[in-house]
Amino acid sequence: MGGQQKSKKKNKPKKTRSNGVGAGLVALTAQERMKVKMHEKAKKKTSEKYTVEQLLEKTEESMDNFDFPMARLFCQRALDIEPTNLEVLDMMGNICAEMGEADKAKQVFLRAVELSPEEGHSKYMYLGQIHTGQEAIGYFSKGIDIMIKALHTQNASAAAAEGASAMDAEGGPAVCGKDVAVAFCSVAEIYFTDLCMEEGAADRCKEAIAKALEYDPRSSEALQLMASYLFSTQNMEEGKDYLKRSVSSWLPSLKQQSETTPAEQEEDSEQSGLPPYESRITTAKLLTEAEEPEMAMEVLERLLEEDDEVVQVWYLLGWVCYLQRDKPEEGESFRDSALTYLTRVKKLYAKLRCDDPAMLEHVEQLLSELKPAGDTADNNDDDEDGPPIDDIGDDFVHSSDEEDDAMEH
Predict the structure, then answer these.
(1) Tally of CB atoms within 10 A around 65
(2) Residue pLDDT, tens place only, 269-284
(3) Which of 4, 188, 209, 270 gets the highest tally of CB atoms within 10 A of its CB?
(4) How many CB atoms within 10 Å of residue 23?
(5) CA-CA distance, 57 to 75, in Å (whole number)?
């Protein structure tokens, strides 16, 4: 009996390993155990020295400076202190997304959904972006429901909140009609692409676009989507009207920006709702389809000013000029321009190692028509490619001491 009791006592110390870090260290290598212990030590040190609010402030500061690795370190420290803080989780998810860590971002946002499924729309917007089909529709729809409820709450308390900062009833960021419109546009695009073959997809697409315009009548994205929808149903004139309204909502302000500094241009772009670069490429395609070559050329030339190494922009410029090669008086000029642009496409295609055989084949076909008989050589334009720029980014590894230094500044 006594021996049995002693053997039980010998086993008792093992139970203490179920608590704390010790239990998780058993199956780790010595190096891995050291890393875990250092992390726990750093976590304890941070929690004693800094508050979550201070860490979030430093996270935002790092994000503003595009130092996402350091932002992640600060945010992780905040998450170590308060693992269920929804604001911290949302920020961590966004940082991971910015760093291209889609799986980690997804994991973080799903955790936020688990903790608070009825509050905060941004996590649903991100989850909708990384999923496809009906699953994406489900996430976007949930986010839209939350935003609409928040809008109703904000409107109901507008008088009381007048003069206060833009915060909703729960203390989170305020929601505006533009946010809801963007979400409805995302739904419409899915019915335009992934679910285009489903029964009733066209009607649901149009309904989503109409809802987007209801919440933001001047949305360039929604207006352009409606133009695309109308073109797809062969309603060209009405579609052209929507497309022109879309372009007129941002192109005039873009012209004015050419006379301002880069910093002012960035601020103006945000305020004027300038569509993303890729979206404006689509705009140029639609304008070409709508037989609006002058406006298409203007959009494309502005894109070149921003980035002159996008093959598709040069290709579209060449295509627009080619389509005008038979214009009276100007035909020869357009022919020469098309030849120059399309020759540039071939050079840039090789330099950037693009993979679009269909586009290259079309370029070759157009060039064969544009070149004088017997001329098989490419235009020898001045080569403005310049030297290649490879791996100009620096890698930084931050220690916990560097985190402390950053917190002090």
Answers:
(1) 10
(2) 455 578 999 999 999 9
(3) 209
(4) 12
(5) 9
